[in-house]
Amino acid sequence: MISNQAVGNQAVVASLRAQRIELPSWAFGNSGTRFKVFAQKGVPRDPYEKVADAAQVNRFTGIAPTVALHIPWDRVDDYADLARHASDLGVSLGTINSNVFQDDDYMLGSVCNPDPRVRRKALDHLLACIDVMDATGSRDLKLWFSDGTNYPGQDDIRARQDRLAEALAAVHARLGPDQRMLLEYKFFEPSFYTMDVPDWGTAYIQCVTAGPKAKVVVDTGHHAPGTNIEFIVASLLRADRLGGFDFNSRFYADDDLMVGSADPFQLFRIMHEVVQADALSPDSGVAFMLDQCHNIEPKIPGQIRSVMNVQEATAKALLVDVDALSAAQRNGDVLGANAVLMDAYNTDVRPLLAEVRGGLGVDADPMRAYADSGYAATIEADRVGGQAAGWGA
Ligand code: RM4
Ligand code: MN
Prior knowledge:
The chain has 15 helices and ten strands.
């Protein structure tokens, strides 16, 4: 019965039209596991071509107008020029992702390293990323640290937290009035005994100490199996410290597969908390980003599908009958409350999304429209020679 109300529900349509999802530049480059990277044809050779591919995802979905950069993977001579290139293609540059995990100096950590010289080098990189943000007009700096230890006794757990706090304070002090820092946590890998930011509690404590411009990023792949991620989301929203999401999907560990593929119901439950907290709109301060790699599937369609998966979960979350839900909750009607959620989740939202896409001026079937566009054949023919982009390139 809910599906009959879905089409033509103007408030829901308006929210879905206003939704924005940010794309990661690194999704368009070659990627793989530590066993093998399978090169694909037509892969971008530089950040300009990555932005061009991201613009295709926006062209066919209408809701992905920003692309995140990873520094130094996306290093260019002139960031303002890259920003102009993006704008010519109808998109803009988004979050700047720092990278202090791919240098020999960081073997024992970056900002938590026992050696002050290495800590200074890592901090200088983070500050340089804010210079990039100034040039690109980006709002957010994303911080993910591979720092940690492998063996009990290897380093002083509390001293490493102190070093982290010192670096985060320095980054916070450098941020402009409209800039933010987003701190990401990950429970294990590459460090196996302790990660220095393993969970949302640690990230939250460090953000509170750093200052009001510091917020937590929830990367959906960075949790132990069975973790109730929507509870974390609800808690961070309540504390006004949810800076955003790195969306992806996992079966086992940090699989970085397409968001919503392993567990679309979990994605729905997460988006339900977002909608309940009125945090969906772009001005809510929650950044909805993808952090994925497409190792065996084509990359641009992989990103289009991912955007659609988030959109689908969001549509279902927006269809939850909140009045019926709160009435059932007030009355202690356990089964009734659960049924309200399940009714929304079980709604076929594809007709609703076709209506939304019509309003956005994009095809009702973005996957087919992209396939018919001929873009894939064009880049395969054009991008011959040069070094294909990939992790570390
Ligand atoms: C990390 C983390 C970061 C991402 C890197 C590539 O696991 O998810 O967000 O930038 O991987
Ligand atoms: Mn991430």
